[in-house]
Design brief:
disordered N terminus; single chain; disordered C terminus; 0% strand; 475 residues; mainly alpha
Length: 475
């Protein structure tokens, strides 16, 4: 049976969530698995270039795709020729992404004043185009409920690419350019596989749908740039004020924010699909509320477990480094704000109200830049981490307000407020503890126990309330 018609045989939400969680783990841990080896093989300068290049890759991918991946998912569920429209938008996204990435890479290589470091950044720009192909393909696979294929692409574009970089520096030379060239080679192979899996069509076969997708997605472009600056902009600030060697230390700890981001973004593939499927019916508000409770619960667990695991994790990733470990303890707190943002943003897309995205996220970036300017100059990295947690809490709150304005009563804010309070207390307590192996082991065990207890308690409460809540979706 073709994927487009396989609705009756799609896997359950629970199984899809498990697949996407695996994909998120691969995406979130790709750099973590390779980092302990690469950081010891490369000089601090070369590792700093790799770290900044990967950040550049993520920013470039979002800029190239704008809002088209979400537009693909939304178009797929339209009643008239939805799958055909989605494939045409997919084709347009591929042409746009690869074309602009090639121009950017060649232009940068020709114009860069620092020829020594230009190679690494040029390879990162080239890889951006192929990553945009993978992301666009994943949007179509997500809509088709082909979670396993989605996960395989996640593994190739993250863990596989970083392993390629590691093999490259072992075989050909310990430089950032070699790492990124090998990284790009694996990304190209992953992009080719993604095209075989999704079979995009030519954009002009569905011109009105492609034009509508760009109208929906273009307001998201300023938002897309801004959200990646929120995700990664602190790295550029640290490099600007403290240099490549210092940014290498910062990037090592930043993985404790990227992990929650990756897991939440991975599971958001299930949550977004559930919201989009209800967008044209009467159950939108009920679906968003149900999704929101799940998201808040997971965000709380990620925040508590993340800060509890920070000391042990940093000892493994980088070795003893008190300032970087303190940062790692704080960064998991971004999970709650980011989770609330995901729910709000998906709701706005579901109802076709994306114009506010053009100003809302850039406004938060301006606030973030002002708050982070002085902490980015300090060797006490945890201060910049605290600013990052605050900024994502503000982002989530803003998107919740925007979503509630379009779909009243759709987001249960109390769940997110309770999650944020729990995570904040866990981080504050952990910051007061020493960064030793013994204390790290104890906090990890206690954190896992608390997260498990909270999960069971809130889950029981959620099940009980859903049984009596008239707004709950019918099974």
């Amino acid at each position: 049976m073709a994927p487009d018609s396989a609705v009756g045989t799609r896997p359950s939400n629970a199984r899809q969530s498990l697949y996407y969680l695996l994909g998120a783990a691969l995406q979130g841990t790709g750099a973590l698995v390779v980092q302990p080896f690469s950081i010891r093989l490369l000089s601090p300068l070369e590792w700093g270039r790799v770290g900044v290049s990967i950040v550049l890759l993520q920013i470039g991918q979002v800029v190239l795709s704008a809002g088209l991946p979400l537009a693909i998912s939304r178009a797929y569920f339209e009643q008239s020729e939805g799958p055909s429209k989605a494939r045409a938008i997919h084709g347009a996204n591929i042409m746009l992404g690869t074309g602009l990435a090639a121009i950017a890479a060649l232009g940068y290589l020709a114009a860069a004043p620092d020829k020594e470091g230009a190679g690494a950044f040029a390879w990162a720009l080239a890889a951006t185009g192929f990553l945009s192909v993978v992301v666009s393909s994943q949007a179509l696979l997500r809509s088709q409920h082909r979670a396993l294929s989605f996960v395989l692409l996640s593994g190739g574009a993250s863990l596989g690419a970083h392993l390629g970089g590691l093999v490259g520096i072992l075989a050909f030379g310990r430089t950032a350019a070699v790492y990124l060239a090998s990284f790009t080679a694996v990304m190209v192979a992953t992009a080719v596989v993604s095209l075989i899996l999704t079979r995009p069509s030519l954009p002009w076969r569905q011109r009105p749908a492609v034009a509508a997708a760009f109208r929906l997605g273009l307001p998201v472009l300023p938002h897309s740039i801004a959200i990646v600056l929120l995700l990664q902009g602190d790295t550029f600030l640290v490099q600007n004020f403290q240099g490549a060697s210092s940014v290498g230390r910062y990037v090592a700890a930043a993985a404790f924010a990227l992990g929650p981001f990756a897991i939440l973004a991975g599971l958001n593939n299930v949550w977004t699909t559930r919201i989009f499927e209800a967008a044209h019916g009467p159950n939108l508000v009920a679906n968003v509320r149900a999704v929101g409770r799940e998201v808040a619960l997971l965000a709380a667990a990620l925040g508590v477990c993340g800060t509890a695991a920070a000391t042990i994790g940093m000892l493994i990733l980088k070795g003893p480094d008190h300032e970087a470990t303190q940062l790692a303890k704080v960064l998991p707190g971004v999970a709650v704000g980011y989770a609330l943002y995901l729910v709000g943003m998906s709701t706005l897309f579901a109802v076709g109200r994306t114009k506010a995205l053009a100003w809302a996220t850039p406004l938060v970036v301006v606030v973030a830049a002002g708050l982070a300017w002085f902490p980015a100059q300090s060797s006490q990295y945890w201060e910049l981490g605290a600013v990052r947690v605050l900024v994502f809490a503000l982002l989530g709150a803003l998107y919740a307000v925007l979503a509630l304005r379009e779909a009243p009563h759709s987001i249960a804010l109390r769940s997110f407020m309770g999650a944020l309070a729990l995570v904040a207390v866990a981080i504050a307590v952990n910051l007061l503890l020493p960064t030793t192996l013994l204390v790290g082991t104890i906090t990890l065990v206690v954190g896992l126990a608390l997260a498990g207890t909270a999960f069971l308690a809130v889950r029981r409460r959620g099940l009980a309330s859903s049984a009596t809540d008239p707004a709950s979706p019918t099974p």
